[in-house]
Amino acid sequence: MNYYTKTIIEDIKSFYTNFSLKDSKSFTCVKASLSACIAYLISLEMELGSSYWAPFCCFIMITPYLGVGIEKGVYRIAGTITGAFVAFLIWGFTIQNQFYYTILLFLVSTACYYKYATSRHMGYFWFMIVLAFILITSVSFEKVLSPADFALTAFDRAMNLLIGILVYLLLNYLFKPKYAADELKSKLRQLKTELSAYNREIFTQYIMSAFNIEPVKKQYETIRSLIKAIDALSYNAQFEKKVISHKPTGIDYKRVSDYIDEIMTFHQSVCNLKSVSFQSNFRKQILKIIEIFESIALLDEKINIEKIVKDIKMQLAIIDIKYNKIVKKGRHYTYSTSDTYIFNESIVILKDYITFFILRENAYKEELTESKKDPELYQDEFLGYKKYSFFGKTLFIHKPHMRFAIQTAITLVVVIWAWKFLDLPSDMGTANITIAVMTASLPDYLSSRLKGILRFLGCSIGFLLGCILLFFSIESTLVMLMCVFLVGYFSAMIMLKCPRISYMGLQIFLAFSVAFIPTWGPVMSLESVFMRFISIFFGISVMWIMSILLWNNNYFQVVKTGILCFWKRFNKFKIDNSADYFPSILIEGISLLKFNIDKLTITSSITLTEQSLLKKWCDAVERLLITSRNLNLVSEEYKLFISEINKELFEKINSLCGVFDIHSNDEQHNSYHSIILDNISEIESLKHLIRSNGLLRAKDIHFKQETMRCIVLIKRLLVRLKDINNIHLELLPLLAEHQSS
Question: How far is residue 346 from each of residues 83, 504, 557, 708, 710, measured CA to CA in Å?
Answer without folding.
Answer: 57, 51, 41, 11, 12
